[in-house]
Amino acid sequence: MLAKLSIGYPVRRCAVTGAVGLALLGAGLPATTARGAEPGLSRFYRQKISWAACEGTDTPRDLQCGKVTVPLDYSRPGAGTLDLALARYRATGRPKGSVLLNFGGPGGAGVGELAAGGKDFMHLTNEYDVVTFDPRGVGRSSPVTCGEGSARALAATDGEEGLRDPKATLRQLRKAAAECAEHAGRVLPHIGTVNVSRDMDVIRAALGDRKLNYLGFSYGTRLGAVYAAQFPDKVGRLVLDGVDTLTEPLAEQGEAGARGQQTALENFLDWCAKDIACPFGQDPRSARQQVVRLVDSLDKDPVPTAYGDLFTGQDLVGAVGQALYSRQLWPLLERTLAQLVEDGDTRGVESFVSGGVALPVRQGPGKKGDGGLVDEEDVPFDNLPAALMAVNCADDPDRPSAEQLTRDLGRLRTEYEQASPVFGRYRLTQVLMCYGRPKGTDFIRDEVKDVDTAKMLLVGTRGDPATPYRWTVETAERLGSSAVVLDNKGDGHTGYASSKCVHRRIDSFLLDGSAPANGSSCGAGDDDGG
Hints:
- By secondary structure, the protein is of the alpha/beta class.
- The protein has a domain at about 265-350.
- Helix content is about 40%, strand content about 15%.
- The protein has helices at about 20-25, 40-45, 110-115, 145-155, 160-165, 165-185, 195-205, 220-230, 250-270, 285-300, 315-325, 330-345, 345-355, 385-395, 400-420, 425, 445, 470-480, 500-510, and strands at about 5-10, 50-55, 65-70, 80-90, 100, 105, 130-135, 210-215, 235-240, 305, 310, 455-465, 485-490, 520.
- A hairpin with a 5-residue loop joins strand 10 and strand 11 (about 310).
- The two termini are about 40 Å apart.
């Protein structure tokens, strides 16, 4: 079983799959909103960033690193601070400001992503410094962890057994939440998008920018929308690519995710069936049935991996789900599935789960828990899934009771499996992810709407397996007349890395301020779009 997948910019995908995904849940607590904050923030807004070359053997030589200090608790700015890790590529000429990037997640560390995929953003350095950061609780910015005890406590909740005995599963979830809170450190109660948005405004001021120019992917679109609601007069040119929902409960998000992944899988199998080498033959309908049988077979009779572990059908589902994030990975997915079907070799499909480790970018001195930056080697192994759960739970106000969850689980399983016979059960843990954790903020659902800002560009991709296109339309309507929608009629998660048309439209908006007409499109495989 899997908690909510990390969703982000497909430079490198950091996966959370199988038992590990559920076992490393974060324990998010309510975030402090921008309203009612106590005074005393001026010292944070007056700081300047000292940039220096990033340390690390594989780090690009022209990448610079720095830090910014933010209050641990915005309602009590004197009660402690955190340092946030930053990285930037400098503008090639005299910059007219900065563009701040968030690659998604939640739980994705921006510094490593920019180090690995910076070439995608070089055109923006014609006029901007391109900047990113590790959000609070993530990467080198006071990273949260749930510890090994939380993983052990949740091992029994994985797979079919966890669905057959939901009461026992909920007891394990509550135990894991308590252990996670014990291990995660002082930042955990102050994690969440509302606080990260406030951090971004401090970063904006420290960069010397009057307004925030921003490019957010996937979860980063939720962050950008929250910023627009909190700081509407500070919004410059803001782009949201792969738009997240602002309103749907976690159970509905999980079902939408299963449906989107099923659509992406069927698109892949339609493509695969045109190739004689496709391991499922040349009939797309038969191929879909064969995938379901393969997953069921591996769940009933897992195969050993090269490391001595057992590879289950749900492990396969997680790996395929990651591979579907980018159409460029389809040929590799076809080959690795053929290795599995024909030879029982799991190494290829496992690579989609184990790949995507961040480049070793050293930030400078610091110890875990002291609010300073953490060295790369000290980032906990479970930081991504722990932060992902912490943020999602801090952002979600719903906490169904044990009785309600137990009563609804059978019905929800049927609905999820109808949405996707492959991904439905895998995504069902979405319903349970925050059980045992304090109620999250209602600010996003209730207040992020009808914003009065400059034009914002929202990009939705029709074949996106993680953020359905309808979320782009719904979020645009919710944000109001400032939102302009670009319809990307392609496949994969987000459009900037996969469509030259989307890439050009976003760059033009950020560099020139020229937004496309609302409802204009980029065609699938058509660089010019519509």
